[in-house]
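Reviewer 2 asked us to include a model.

Predict the structure of this chain.
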Amino acid sequence: MTLGQTFKFYCYQTESMRNKIAKGFAVLYELSYGEKINVSPRRLTQAYDHIKDFRNICAHEERLYCARVSPGHDISVVDALSDLQLVLPKNEAALLTNDILDLLASIGEDMREADFSRLVTSMGAEHLPGLKERRNVPRTSLEARVAQPA
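Predicted model (structure tokens):
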């Protein structure tokens, strides 16, 4: 099933089934992250909706870095990383975050500080841990990390 089909399938389930699925994701999260959280069906629906919207932005070659989704247009690409943590194992979420940090740092090497700061802020990434440190890493080191197969 596609992501959109999976999302619709989940939405069409009974409330009881959505509760069971949400609890299942809470268990998987605890196993992967070592921390217990409550995942409500509403929160899981929001996460899937945000992930789906960002996937569609990418699929239609629109600008991802400054995109905002949700009815209030207040969810940034970095917010979507938090949503992905609900449904991805910790190691996969960490790899994705590291790839984004490496790409941002690499892009930042070719930008003035003020422009880079605006880019990072538009993405909601100003508080991502490790971004400032990576920006100071020589480009060849970053390119080698980005080129490594997963």
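The chain has a mean pLDDT of 86. Helices lie at 3-11, 15-33, 41-59, 77-87, 90-108, 113-123, 131-135, 139-147. We have added this to the supplementary material.
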